[in-house]
Every structure is written in C-alpha cells, then in structure tokens.
C-alpha cells in the first residue's frame, strides 16, 4: 500500500485504540493496568499518521520525486484487528472457554478478615479458595454473596465462573464454583448471576485438569448486568 | 452491543493518485491503495450484520476475542519498541555501540545478553530494537543475544514470576539463569555458524537526504506497518491453535517426564503468551513438574508463533527458518539442565 493509505490505516488504528481505551471496551481484552500504555500508543499512532501525511505532501510538492517503495502486502492484515475492534467488538471470554479450561484455583497464603455484611460479599476466587482449601472454616457459617457467570459442563451441572486475567484474554483462566440448592428454573450459559448461599462440604474435581471445585448451596439467585470489568484481576494487585 | 464509527475519516477518497515520476505506466495498472482501502472499509461497514452472524458461534466468538486481545495487548509494546528503535536509528551514533560493547564478539555476546535486562516490556518490543541494533553496526551475534534475553530477564517479567510462584522463589533464579544461558549460547552459536547472507539486513525506505524528524517518523511508520502485519499473522495463528487444541491432551502428557517437557515446550510456542503473563499460566499447570514449567517459561519469550512471524518480517525468512528451530532446541535443553540442577 502506498503512504497515503498507510497514513489512513495508522490513523484509524490509533483512533480505535484511543476509543477502546477511553470507553472501557479495552477491559474485555486486556488488564485494566494496560490503559495508560494503550492511550499513549494510540496517540503515537495518530501522530505517526499525521507526520506521514505531512511529509508525503511535502515530498509531492518538492522537486525530488524519489521512487516510493510500496510496503509489503502483509501490512493489509492490520485491517483485520481494526475491523474486529470497530465493527464486531467481540465480548469477553465466557462459558465456552471456561468449560474447556481447567480451574486456576491456587492455595492462598492465608485468609483475610471476612468483610462486614449479611450476606458477606465475596469474589468467586475468594470464596473458592476459602471453601476448597480451608474447608469453609474461615466463613464461620455465614451466608455469602458471589457474582459470576453461569457455565454448564457436558453433563449439564451448573458452575458459577469468573475468568481471572493476568495480562490479556489469551491467558485468562476460569475459577469455578459448583452450584447446588435453589437454582433458577432456566439456566442460560453466560448469564451473569448474583448468588446468595452457604458453604457446602465436599470438593468436585475439574474434568480438565483435576483442580478443586468447591460447592456452594444456593438459597437465592438474581440476574445482574455484566460488570464493568468482566475479569477478576485480584492477582494483578 | 456494538460500536460503529464513520467508515473512514482520514482516508483520502480522491480516486487514484495521478501517476507521478517513478515508473510511468506501472502506476496506472495498479489499483491505488487508498481506493482499495476505502472500498474495503465501506464494504465491511455495509456487510456488518452478515459478518457478525458468521462470528456468532461460541468457538468463533472466543477466537475473535483472543485474536483482538493478543493484538491489542501487543500493539502498545510494539509501538514502544518501534519508537526506541527509531530513536536508536536517528539519535544514537554508530560509534556509541562500538565503544559500549567489547570488540570481540565472544565477549560482546554476554554483555548484550545482560543488557537485555534494561528493556522493560515483553517480546514484541525486542524484535524492532534488535533490528535497529543490527542496522547500527552491532555485531549480529550480540544483537541476537539481546533479542532473546530482553523479554525474559527484565525486572517486570521476573517480578511477575515471583508473584506467580510465591512458594518457589528458586523459580525466578532458574528462569533468569536459564534464559541468560540460552541467549548467550545462541549468540555464540550464531558467531560460530551464522552466515551474514542468511540475515537480510532490515531494509528501510531510502533516507532521501531527509531531516532527522522525517527519518524518525519514516522509520516508525515503516516498522509499525511491517512488524504490525506480522504481529497480526502471529495473533491469528495463536488464536486458532487456542481454539482447536483439545482440552484434555495436556492431562495425558503430564504423565511422563520426557513427554511433559516436550508438551509444555510446544504449548509455549503455540500459545504465544506475553512474557509478562506466562508465569501465571505456568503456575496454573499444576499437574506438571517444576522443570516442565521452567521449560515453558524459557521457551515462550524466545520463540513462539507471533515472534517467528515478526522475526521473519524483520530479518528475512531464510534467517527465521534456521534461527527458530535452533532456539527451540537450545531453550529446551538449557531449561532442562537448569531445572535438574536448581529445582
């Protein structure tokens, strides 16, 4: 492609990055901490596009018409992520990946104090590690409230899942809780739920990597909208 | 929820640019690229709903998400590396490297390898910077040692490794030593066996007696368009493999020591995870031995699909086809050796 087209592609790519970084769209794909870099690189791309256009104009006006080396055709591939970001904007990873990836639950250092409240608000990772590794003792028999999305395995048993993310969606890994008790009559995979319930004994094993999946006995569940950051980023802090 | 924007602000739509100088006649036969670009964008906007329909299956959706994620995550680091390499090309005189590096390549290699620790970020930034070093007259052996060590031994990556393996601090040391060892070994190997005619020196648009500013932005534009295209190719390959790999093959591999090392080495190449995040993925592969996890951590930042595509773009295909397998073999061997001694 010639330099005018390159300037246009650079400009659009920079604009798409700036757009994703300012609207929160980027949280579907990368960790929150990447935002400053994303905005900075978007700005650099826009400046590079303007500089290219400016030097190109000067080159055409000046008397030296040097032959232009057209860039290799591989540059056209840059249109693909651009179109995917602007037109498709695919959703954050959901139940399809969660069922196909083993739980990433790891033995924690220790358990912090339970937050106040009845029921106690906990993240999926927090509840899962207290239940799977501490036999739920640190929960003191209190009712808990956990938010995540639904995933159904091949046998149809329901899990509450949150994807934990370290860098970008390519390395996102699920943490799963097996649900028992009072479930809604219709279970739609990928539907976000706020579940209230109590610790239930026993640990299931993830069919994919044999990792531990604790149980939660549900007393009530209500649908909630997708959170601002669909991924769990506690490991990044 | 979707986002639509104007089809193409900034794309000039004045039809084919009229032929000027250069090669008369040839320009007329070729479609002008701004026109093709505008048509592509317009068609994509018009065909929005069929395209979305095609991508609606869960498998395609997760493919697209991973593809966009890898690209969006790598682009900032690529831009950072490209800016750095343009700065090296414009503002650092070649004499600086001649003074900073030992004259003998055998000594320059470890110095460059250790210098990799100062380049923050991940592997996407190191390829353009290594290209700029070669252009500035740094001996290729040293530039390649830098290319391999930078993504693996910088403080950000080592800190991430320490966070991911809280109970095995020896993992951080093992990763540092194994990566440095393999990077230097590859540098010396190139010095012994490498031939300069395999290495296509990174070509650049002629610096037409231009000002510093023009040379700088020319280099930035060229590198982003070029390396960016290869980055997209690598991201597509990585997303495809993530989508088609059956979930249970790893479990069968974890059984035997030899097979588990090979499986994680291949996985590191296929997944193409950023080196700042691969430690967390390695930590989640609970059923594998520490040595196999170390292999995953050493191989990933040095050679994966995305890197292979970018190396081929920067240094030429003849180089990448020889360099990649050698890197892979040495990285596996070096990591196993370190793992046996330390872990």
Word description of this protein:
The complex is a heterodimer of chains A (237) and B (343). Chain A has helices spanning 3-23, 35-61, 79-88, 95-100, 124-133, and strands spanning 120-122, 144-152, 158-164, 173-181, 192-205, 212-223. Chain A is of the alpha/beta class and 237 residues long. Chain A has two domains: 3-88, no CATH class; 95-233, Beta Barrel (OB fold (Dihydrolipoamide Acetyltransferase, E2P)), CATH 2.40.50. With 343 residues, chain B is an all-alpha fold. Chain B has helices spanning 26-29, 33-46, 48-54, 58-91, 94-100, 105-115, 123-135, 140-153, 155-164, 170-193, 212-244, 249-253, 257-271, 278-284, 290-302, 305-315, 317-342. Chain B is globular and about 60 Å long. Mean pLDDT of chain B is 82; it is low at 1-27.
What's the arrangement of secondary structure elements?
The complex is a heterodimer of chains A (237) and B (343).
Chain A: H1 3-23, H2 35-61, H3 79-88, H4 95-100, E1 120-122, H5 124-133, E2 144-152, E3 158-164, E4 173-181, E5 192-205, E6 212-223
Chain B: H1 26-29, H2 33-46, H3 48-54, H4 58-91, H5 94-100, H6 105-115, H7 123-135, H8 140-153, H9 155-164, H10 170-193, H11 212-244, H12 249-253, H13 257-271, H14 278-284, H15 290-302, H16 305-315, H17 317-342
Helix pairs in contact in B: 4-7, 4-11, 6-8, 6-10, 7-8, 7-16, 8-10, 8-15, 9-10, 9-14, 10-15, 10-17, 11-16, 13-15, 14-15, 15-17, 16-17
């Amino acid at each position: 492609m010639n330099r005018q087209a390159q300037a246009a592609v650079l400009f659009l790519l920079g604009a798409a990055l700036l757009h994703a970084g300012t609207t929160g769209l980027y949280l579907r794909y990368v960790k929150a901490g990447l935002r400053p870099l994303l905005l900075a690189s978007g700005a650099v791309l826009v400046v590079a596009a303007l500089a290219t256009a400016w030097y190109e104009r000067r080159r055409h006006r000046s008397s030296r018409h040097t032959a232009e080396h057209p860039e290799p055709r591989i540059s056209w591939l840059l249109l693909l992520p651009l179109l995917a970001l602007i037109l498709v904007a695919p959703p954050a990873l959901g139940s399809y990946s969660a069922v196909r990836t083993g739980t990433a639950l790891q033995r924690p250092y220790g358990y912090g104090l339970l937050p106040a409240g009845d029921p106690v608000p906990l993240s999926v990772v927090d509840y899962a590690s207290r239940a799977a590794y501490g036999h739920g003792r640190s929960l003191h028999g209190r009712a808990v409230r956990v938010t995540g999305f639904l995933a159904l395995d091949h046998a149809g048993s329901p899990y509450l899942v949150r994807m934990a993310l370290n860098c970008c969606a390519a390395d996102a890994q699920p943490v799963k809780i097996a649900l028992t008790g009072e479930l809604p009559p219709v279970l739609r995979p990928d539907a976000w739920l706020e579940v209230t319930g109590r610790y239930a004994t026993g640990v299931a094993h993830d069919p994919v990597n044999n990792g531990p999946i604790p149980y939660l006995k549900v007393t009530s569940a209500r649908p909630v909208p997708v959170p601002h950051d669909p991924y769990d980023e506690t490991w990044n802090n | 929820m979707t986002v639509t924007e104007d089809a193409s602000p900034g794309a000039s739509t004045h039809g084919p640019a009229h032929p000027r100088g250069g090669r008369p006649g040839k320009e007329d036969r070729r479609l002008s690229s701004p026109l093709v670009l505008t048509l592509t964008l317009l068609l994509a906007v018009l065909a929005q709903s069929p395209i979305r329909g095609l991508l609606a299956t869960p498998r395609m959706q997760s493919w697209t998400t991973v593809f966009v994620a890898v690209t969006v995550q790598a682009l900032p680091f690529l831009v950072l590396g490209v800016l750095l390499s343009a700065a090296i090309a414009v503002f650092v005189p070649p004499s600086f490297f001649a003074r900073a590096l030992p004259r003998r390549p055998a000594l320059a290699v470890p110095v460059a390898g250790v210098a990799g620790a100062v380049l923050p970020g991940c592997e996407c930034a190191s390829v353009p910077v290594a290209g700029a070093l070669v252009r500035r007259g740094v001996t290729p052996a040293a530039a390649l040692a830098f290319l391999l060590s930078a993504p693996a031994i910088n403080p950000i990556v080592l800190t991430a490794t320490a966070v991911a393996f809280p109970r095995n601090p020896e993992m951080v040391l093992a990763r540092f030593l194994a990566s440095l060892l393999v990077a230097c070994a590859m540098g010396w190997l190139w010095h012994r066996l490498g031939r300069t005619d395999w290495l296509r020196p990174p070509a650049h648009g002629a610096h037409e007696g231009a000002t510093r500013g023009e040379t700088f932005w020319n280099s930035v534009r060229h590198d982003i368009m070029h390396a960016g295209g290869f980055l997209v190719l690598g991201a597509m390959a990585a997303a495809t493999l993530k989508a088609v790999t059956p979930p249970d093959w790893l479990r069968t591999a974890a059984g035997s020591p030899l097979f588990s090392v090979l499986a994680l080495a291949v996985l590191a190449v296929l997944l193409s995870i950023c080196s700042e995040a691969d430690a967390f993925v390695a930590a989640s592969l609970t059923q594998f031995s520490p040595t196999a996890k170390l292999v995953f951590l050493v191989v990933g930042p040095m050679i994966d699909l995305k890197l292979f595509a970018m190396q081929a773009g920067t240094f030429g295909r003849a180089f990448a086809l020889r360099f990649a397998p050698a890197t892979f073999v040495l990285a596996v061997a070096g990591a196993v050796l370190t793992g046996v001694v330390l872990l």
